[in-house]
Every structure is written in structure tokens, then in C-alpha cells.
Inverse folding.
């Protein structure tokens, strides 16, 4: 098996450049690759496009990248609970594309699955459908949505083996598995790193794919 | 007049045995507290859980186990976790029988607005647009009027809409109404609330059937 483990988070993000597109897993504060984000903050890369369901809070997750003015554009479904985000948005410093959560999840899935676009009913007749191709299937109207891909995907998993197989815990799964597929390079951050063979492939056969690099940082326990 | 918990209690009566149900944030979340013990209902949480259990006891919270409102929750025997794409496949694929949502406005054709106040609130739609575009049955739980006292039941939504022609039933602090072809059909009124009071608080077309309008019954 190919060993995909890197020594530290800095090594995992050393190819990062300005203006790159990032996907970051997480829903609320659950399943966030916080150590990989810390490395991204340290890299000081600017002009980033970040695809993430939420925008974190002021002092956690994507909030740290916002505070450091590294994000040019956010692609999210729900961005409440973040004062700095709101300030940058209202002042015009930050560009935001708000899209329905299921559409966001499917666009990311499609990006990793080689599907360039798909039709969905979500947002038909609302401002989300403005400028998009609309088509009727049966008696229902649908809008065409393009897939999303990223230069880097940052994901958070519970356990990972040295070959890059990941398993997730509870609702910390959320967007992580699809993002792991949709990034040119995927950096996975795990709570426990195990040797190949330790994860049961039968038990975990549905549970997701590889990554290319690996942070060995152990996540801090949330209060 | 009903309070928020009583609105939730009334909506809980709409749940049927075998239903898969998605509850939105706010009053809809309270519905879970009033589901009859005589029926089996499975709650779907959009962030990747089918079979949502009650809130955990203090000290038993798991930060990796939350609901769509980001509150810590529990699982039940038979619960299952999945990713967000699968979660919305269930929603888009019409595998969820009933969705209960809050709203800022509902129009008499069933349009709903609940995600944006231009220039004021820019939080995003979350999963609401996916839910209203695909749910087989949508019940709205809300106050009949907003804080300024204006009706939230309108002939046409003034705020940016979340979905079109989708709301089937509305339960407010004043009444239970069905969304029918030409407007809001008054079905039940809250205890102590007259038909006239409901008429005054409803800006969209209110249809009052020519019969005694029963009072909402809740235990």
C-alpha cells in the first residue's frame, strides 16, 4: 500500500498558493478540519475561494481565515452566527455565493464523480434560478447546476489508515466524504491514525475513499 | 391564542404512523416533544442522521452528534448516519413524508419566504430550498403576524421566496388553515379567538366555510 502520511500539517499544505479554490468539510462546528485550517492561516495565502457549508464562527474554523482577510469568495448555504463575515460582506470586501444545501452537496459530489452538471428542483422560481437553464421533466421544473471542484480539499475524519482510508464519527461526516473526492489534492485530518489492515473493510466498505496527504495532528477535544 | 409549544402540539397531531419527518429550526423542532407514543415516526436531520433521538442528559453531550440547528442530540436503536449528499438525496427523492418549517411569509398560492430580508439578514437558505422543492407535504409553523403586527399570510410574498406552490397547511397562534386553490381555508381557530380576529390578521384571501369553525383541540 502507498503510504500517504505526512509528518505535520505544514507539510500537508506546502503546495498552497494565492487564489486557489478550497473545499472545507464541516456542518456547524462539527467535522471541521481545524488543524489544516490553522496551517492555511499560517501560510497566509490570499485571494482564496472557500467552498464550505458554513463560514465558521468568529474564532473557530473558517472564521480564522476571514479574520486574516485570506478569503476572496465564499460558496456556502448558511453563513449566520459570524459577525466578521457579515461585516466583510456588507462592506463589499467579501464575495458570497449562497446556494441551497442539497445543491451544494450534490455539486461537490458531482465534481468528484465526473458529472459536469445536473438538474435539481431546489430553488426553481427563486433568485437561485436566475440566469440558469430551466427544463421541465414530467410536470416539474428543474434548474441546471454545475459541479464544483477544488485545488485542495480539507477534510476531517475520525480514523484514517496509512493508505488514506477514512472513517467518520456521527454527524461529523456531513460534507467531508464528497469533498475528499472533489479536490485535486485532499488533506485529511484524523483523530486517530492506524496502520493499514486495522480498519475493517467489510464494516466500513461504504465509508469512503482515499486522500493524498495526511495531517498527524490530533484534534483537540471540544468542550 | 396558542403559544409556540401549543402550535407544536397541534402540528404533532398531523404526524402519522410510519412517517419520515424533517423538522426545521424554531417552533418545528418543538414538535418532536409531542409525538404520540401510539405511532412510530422517524425524524430525519439534514446534516446526516435518520432516527434522531431526544436531547442528551447533561454531561452526556457528544460534539460529533448534532442536529440541523447545531444542538447536541442523541441516536436511537436503528439510527443511521450518512453524508450530506445522501441526506439531500432522501429529501430530493421524496423519501421524506412531511416537512415542518417556520416562515416569514406564506402566500395564498402556497409560496413561502423564509430565508432572506434584503439589506438586513443575509444568512443563507441552508436546506430550506431543497426541502420545499421536494417535500410531499409541507406544514408551516409560525405566528400569524410579525413583530410589527402585520399579517404573514399574504396574497403574494413581499420577501424573496424560498419555494413556489408548496405549502399545504399552516398552523399559527390563531388558526389552522389549509392552502387551497383560491386562498387560505380556515379549518380550526385557536381557543378564545374569533373568526373576525383571524380575518383581521389575514391579509391574503381567507376562505371561511359556512359552518361552525371548531376550536383547536390540544391536551
Amino acid at each position: 500500500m502507498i503510504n500517504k502520511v505526512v509528518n505535520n500539517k505544514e507539510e500537508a499544505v506546502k503546495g498552497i498558493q494565492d487564489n486557489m479554490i478550497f473545499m472545507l468539510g464541516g456542518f456547524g462546528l462539527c467535522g471541521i478540519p481545524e488543524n489544516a485550517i490553522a496551517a492555511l492561516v499560517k501560510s497566509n495565502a490570499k485571494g482564496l475561494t472557500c467552498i464550505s457549508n458554513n463560514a465558521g464562527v468568529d474564532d473557530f474554523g473558517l472564521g480564522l481565515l476571514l479574520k486574516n482577510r485570506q478569503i476572496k469568495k465564499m460558496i456556502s448555504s448558511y453563513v449566520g452566527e459570524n459577525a466578521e463575515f457579515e461585516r466583510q460582506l456588507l462592506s463589499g470586501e467579501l464575495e458570497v455565493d449562497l446556494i441551497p444545501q442539497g445543491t451544494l452537496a450534490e455539486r461537490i459530489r458531482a465534481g468528484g464523480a465526473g458529472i459536469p452538471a445536473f438538474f435539481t428542483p431546489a430553488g426553481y422560481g427563486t433568485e437561485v434560478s436566475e440566469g440558469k437553464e430551466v427544463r421541465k421533466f414530467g410536470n416539474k421544473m428543474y434548474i441546471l447546476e454545475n459541479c464544483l471542484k477544488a485545488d485542495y480539499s480539507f477534510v476531517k475524519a475520525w480514523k484514517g489508515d496509512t493508505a488514506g482510508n477514512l472513517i467518520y464519527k456521527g454527524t461529523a461526516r456531513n460534507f467531508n466524504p464528497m469533498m475528499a473526492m472533489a479536490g485535486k489534492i485532499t488533506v485529511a485530518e484524523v483523530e486517530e491514525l492506524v496502520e493499514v489492515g486495522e480498519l475493517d473493510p467489510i464494516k466500513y466498505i461504504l465509508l469512503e475513499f482515499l486522500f493524498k496527504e495526511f495531517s498527524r495532528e490530533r484534534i483537540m477535544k471540544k468542550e | 391564542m396558542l403559544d409556540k409549544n401549543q402550535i407544536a402540539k397541534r402540528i404533532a397531531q398531523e404526524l402519522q404512523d410510519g412517517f419520515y419527518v424533517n423538522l426545521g429550526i424554531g417552533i418545528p423542532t418543538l414538535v418532536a416533544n409531542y409525538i404520540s407514543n401510539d405511532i412510530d415516526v422517524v425524524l430525519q436531520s439534514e446534516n446526516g442522521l435518520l432516527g434522531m433521538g431526544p436531547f442528551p442528559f447533561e454531561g452526556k453531550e457528544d460534539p460529533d452528534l448534532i442536529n440541523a440547528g447545531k444542538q447536541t442530540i442523541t441516536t436511537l436503536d436503528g439510527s443511521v448516519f450518512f453524508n450530506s449528499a445522501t441526506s439531500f438525496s432522501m429529501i430530493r427523492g421524496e423519501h421524506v413524508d412531511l416537512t415542518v418549517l417556520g416562515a416569514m411569509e406564506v402566500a395564498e398560492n402556497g409560496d413561502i419566504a423564509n430565508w432572506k430580508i434584503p439589506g438586513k439578514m443575509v444568512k443563507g437558505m441552508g436546506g430550506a430550498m431543497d426541502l420545499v422543492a421536494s417535500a410531499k407535504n409541507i406544514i408551516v409553523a409560525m405566528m400569524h403576524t410579525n413583530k410589527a403586527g402585520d399579517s404573514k399570510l399574504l396574497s403574494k410574498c413581499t420577501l424573496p421566496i424560498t419555494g413556489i406552490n408548496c405549502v399545504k397547511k399552516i398552523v399559527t397562534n390563531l388558526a389552522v388553515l389549509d392552502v387551497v386553490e383560491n386562498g387560505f381555508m380556515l379549518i380550526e381557530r385557536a381557543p378564545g379567538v374569533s373568526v373576525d380576529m383571524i380575518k383581521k390578521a389575514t391579509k391574503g384571501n381567507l376562505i371561511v366555510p359556512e359552518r361552525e369553525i371548531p376550536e383547536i383541540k390540544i391536551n
